[in-house]
Design brief:
Blueprint: H1 2-20, E1 27-31, H2 39-51, E2 58-64, H3 68-77, E3 82-89, E4 92-99
Parallel strand pairs: 1-2
Antiparallel strand pairs: 2-4, 3-4
Length: 100
């Protein structure tokens, strides 16, 4: 129950600030949870999603914590022009990604 409340508070904090700036920023959420994700598919997905970003847009990538290295590796290997913030909550990690 406490995990659910903590997750709800984290979501409200993250999305509350986005809702206030909704007219200037666009936010997309990509959920990469579940089995079957490999480095090649993570890299392809990240490259495609980052190519869609415009200045001021926010991309949130949700992934299981044990697989978060796939996202970090994709950003580094593809030299994606982004900055990101990593938020870990129990079993899930959220990457809040913006263009540099």
């Amino acid at each position: 129950m406490l995990r659910l409340i903590g997750l709800l508070i984290a979501v409200l904090i993250i999305f509350g600030s986005v809702a206030m700036n909704a007219e200037t920023k666009h936010e997309r959420v990509v959920n990469l949870t579940g089995g079957g994700l490999c480095q090649n598919s993570a890299t392809t997905i990240m490259t495609e999603e980052v190519s869609k970003l415009k200045p001021g847009d926010i991309l949130t990538v949700v992934i299981e914590t044990e697989n978060k290295h796939l996202i970090k590796a994709a950003i580094v290997l593809e030299k994606l022009p982004v900055v990101y913030e990593e938020l870990t909550d129990i079993d899930l990690t959220r990457f809040i990604i913006k263009l540099k």
